[in-house]
Design goal:
Blueprint lengths: L2 H11 L4 E5 L2 E6 L5 H10 L7 E7 L1 H10 L3 E8 H9 L3 E8 L12 H6 L5 H18 L1
Parallel strand pairs: 3-4, 4-5
Antiparallel strand pairs: 1-2, 1-3
Helix pairs in contact: 3-4, 3-6
Length: 143
């Protein structure tokens, strides 16, 4: 079974927010909200993410940039934003989604997700990784 199918089935079956598969098996899974799970995967697995498949409940531009930075080769999103879709397309990453939305909303559903807003003008995946990580740490400290 292809890695993207393994990741997608695990995401749904275990009701996770993130599942990552490589070589036919799950190498990372999380039920963290936002991009926290992707940051954890990058920190824990580093270059082992290259060539993996990511299944994520919500993929906005920030998550897409992190996937590009990690050199994954496929992404499934239950919800994908226009910015996330454009980022994946521009970087040649195969993707599938269930629902395409103009933007990712915050947890209240009333405003744009802070990471989606922060990533609007980011294009370079390496720069995005470090800037998003710094932004996440500032949000965590302020919370």
């Amino acid at each position: 079974m292809p890695d993207l199918e393994v990741a997608k089935q695990t995401l749904k079956k275990k009701n996770l927010t993130l599942a990552i598969a490589k070589n036919g098996r799950i190498i990372f899974q999380s039920d963290s909200h936002g991009v926290v799970g992707l940051f954890e995967a990058i920190e824990r697995l580093g270059s082992n993410l290259e060539g993996a498949a990511v299944a994520d409940k919500i993929v906005g531009k920030a998550a897409a940039l992190l996937c590009v930075y990690s050199r994954v080769n496929a992404v499934f999103a239950s919800i994908l934003s226009f910015g996330g879709k454009d980022t994946l397309e521009r970087n040649g990453i195969k993707y599938e989604y269930e629902v395409l939305v103009p933007k990712i909303l915050d947890r209240t559903g009333k405003d744009m997700c802070p990471f989606e807003r922060f990533s609007l003008n980011l294009e370079n995946p390496r720069e995005a990784y470090f800037r998003l990580k710094e932004f996440a740490e500032k949000l965590r400290e302020g919370a």
